[in-house]
Amino acid sequence: MLEYKNFIIGPLDNNCVVLFDNETKEGVIVDPSFDADPVAEFIQQKGLKVSTVFLTHGHFDHYYGLPFLQSQLPELTHVLLHSADLELWNQGGSAQVFLPTVLHLPEPDRPMQDEEKLYLGNYVIRVLHTPGHTPGSVVFYIPEIATAFCGDLIFYHGIGRTDMPGGNYRQLKESIKNKIFTLPPQTTLISGHGPATTVAEEVENNPFFH
């Protein structure tokens, strides 16, 4: 059975997710933020095999825990990011706006594309390209557990900011309407920050669409 564990970590209360198959013990990390000690501890305690990181987008707070996790989990060698966010990544993920120093890391080794299918054990993870918050923002949608990991595209009764480099308000709203609101209504949405919500809840009550 595919399961996930959410960790609220770092100074910006990021949601970092460990997605794993409890039978095969294969797992991936979605958006490893700062202060990722509990994430590493959970993976080690569960005996999970985690070699890959999925990034919803290239902002610093969604990947700054990567060096620490790689120091604790030597097999964690693959990093997936949409190709449209490589420039943002190479410029430090906009960290220079908030932090005194910028973390420069090797480029992710595998770019993702829209509607690509990733696999975790026998489970399919659909990559939905959802630009607006950043040019390369993506959502990871897993139909079999009716869950989508949305990064900073959409929040409970909110939407992602578009005032950072590469942000586009019109594009963001189109991404939500075309890629999120078209998912089954019962789909759980796990955002980059804040509480979980559902497609039905946001279609009915998100104030940016009424």
Protein model, in words:
43% of the residues are buried. The chain has helices at residues 37-46, 66-72, 86-90, 169-180, 199-205, and strands at 2-9, 14-21, 26-30, 49-54, 78-82, 110-112, 117-120, 123-129, 138-142, 147-151, 154-155, 158-159, 188-191, 197-198. It is 20% helix and 31% strand. It has five helices and 14 strands. With 210 residues, the chain is α/β, with parallel strands linked by helices. It is globular and about 45 Å long.
Q: What structural class results from the helix and strand content?
A: alpha/beta
| Low-pLDDT residue intervals, each spanning 5 or more residues | none
Q: Which sheet architecture does the biggest sheet show?
A: 6 strands, mixed
Choose one word for the global shape: globular
Strand order of the largest sheet: 1-2-3-4-5-6
What structural keywords apply?
6-stranded mixed beta sheet, 210 residues, single chain, 20% helix, alpha/beta
Put the structure in a nutshell.
The chain has 210 residues and is of the alpha/beta class. Helix content is 20%, strand content 31%.
Could you outline the blueprint of secondary structure elements for this entry?
Elements: E1 2-9, E2 14-21, E3 26-30, H1 37-46, E4 49-54, H2 66-72, E5 78-82, H3 86-90, E6 110-112, E7 117-120, E8 123-129, E9 138-142, E10 147-151, E11 154-155, E12 158-159, H4 169-180, E13 188-191, E14 197-198, H5 199-205
Parallel strand pairs: 3-4, 4-5, 5-6, 10-13
Antiparallel strand pairs: 1-2, 2-3, 7-8, 8-9, 9-10, 11-12, 13-14
